[in-house]
Amino acid sequence: MLGQNYIAGEWTNGTSEIENRNPSDLTDLVGMFAQASADQLEATLDQARVAQVEWEAYGMERKQAVLMSIGNELMARAEELGTLLSREEGKPIAEGKGEVYRAGQFFTYYAAECLRQLGENADSVRPGVEVDVRREAVGVVAIISPWNFPTATASWKIAPALCYGNAVLWKPANVTPASAVALTEIISRQDIPKGLFSLVMGSGRDVGQRIVESPKVNAISFTGSVPVGKGIASAAIQNLTKVQMEMGSKNALAVMDDADLELAVTVALGGAFGSTGQKCTASSRLVVHASIHDAFVEKLVAGAKAMKVGHAQEAGIQMGPVVSAQQLSENLRYVDLGKSEGAELACGGVRLEMPHDGFYMSPGVFLNSNNGMRINREEMFAPLTSVIKVDSYDEALSVVNDTNFGLTSGIVTQSLARATHFRRNARTGVVTVNLPTAGTDYHVPFGGRGDSSYGPREQGKAAAEFYTTVKTAYISAGTPL
Ligand code: NDP
């Protein structure tokens, strides 16, 4: 496969190419992918500005039909595109398929939102004058997305951006270009103005940096790491470009003494090791009440050891490889760090040899850790989780909240009083009760606090805040007052 960029409405070669290999089997070449040049970036930004004006003027039913068509095709092709995603990212096919299907739902949800264009109307304080408040498109939106949910994260940004009348320039992570080309191919066949949507592949440091520094970009939606997010914010402020950023986290799951033990273990395993732990919502801190600690830990470690790790495109696999050599070596560095900090590695955390050469690692559980350790303060993005023992609910809540991040948190308890107190006092953007810290819906807001997020929330109706700008119009009948 040769993946080209989609520049100003044309599939275009780049100035160079990168190769993309399957992390489950490094002999499997997924394809070669074009890297965009600075000139191509300028050309596509100029065309996007023209196309955006035309698109915003489309009737709402015409826009709705475009988004519905993209969503329906993604859902219909979830198996095929989910397998491609699994091949380049390393999550099991079932997770890849689920991700592509969910991406389709983002588009069908925002297809419906195209028709729900309500504003506000008011009387002015001046008699005879009316006030009309409506939302209009921001203009050209740059979307910079990560590799861990290559189709879903991009879709939850692209769908509202188009719904609210914007042009989109998409720079996906260079680690997962095949899914980006596949989604772009679907969008390119729609009834949209030439250049409304572009795919600009290239490295973050080069193409990404040029995008965020461009005065031709009106808004930037980014998901990725905190250091890159801070750099983007600094660059964007020079042009007063609007930004929305979802970054890392260090999500905690509190397991209380009254928890259903089986449920707590299932929730913890799913939250910690789903998608090989490479989720911004992963349960990387397990804050466990002392009176249930030993029983919980025994089952947790047994569950982690029993997880079937292997080639992500083979049936029955629960956890695929990590995404890249770089991520694997970072993960192993954190394992060494945890041990040197005094945490006990109860299982896993080692590179696995498999029949296929890939980036395999066993799910690891640290015990006897405390919240001051770096493994409990820094995002690892790995199939690693740490148990922190506490003596009370109050101590659990205080540990959960003792972090620079604040994306998600969860509690497993059968007490309505504790669940209610936790829901109100956990300082995160998302709180779960008797559910994993990962797993969110598309029709409600998503985002966090602290270092986890910056700018308006994503998804649901909340997305309108970022992808639109408000206009207040004063209207007089034109006769003397
Ligand atoms: P990055 O933050 O480096 O990358 C995210 C996106 O930003 C990619 O598309 C990347 O491009 C791009 N990018 C990188 N540098 C710049 C720049 N200077 N200007 C504009 N865009 C840029 O995350 P990684 O994918 O490298 O992952 C590193 C760590 O980030 C992970 O280990 C994890 O801790 C965290 N992460 C968090 C995510 C979350 O959802 N919270 C998602 C992914 C990562 P390219 O990849 O092509 O360089």
Explained architecture:
The chain is of the alpha/beta class. It has two domains: 278 residues, Aldehyde Dehydrogenase, Chain A, domain 1, CATH 3.40.605; 183 residues, Aldehyde Dehydrogenase, Chain A, domain 2 (3-Layer(aba) Sandwich), CATH 3.40.309. It has 14 helices and 21 strands. The chain has a seven-stranded mixed β-sheet with strand order 15-16-17-14-13-18-19, with helices on both faces. Strands 10-9-8-11-12-20 form a six-stranded mixed β-sheet, sandwiched between helices. Helix 13 links the parallel strand 18 and strand 19. Helix 3 crosses helix 4, helix 4 runs parallel beside helix 5 and helix 9 packs across helix 10. It is globular. The chain starts with a strand and ends in a 5-residue tail after the last strand. The mean pLDDT is 96. It binds NADPH dihydro-nicotinamide-adenine-dinucleotide phosphate.
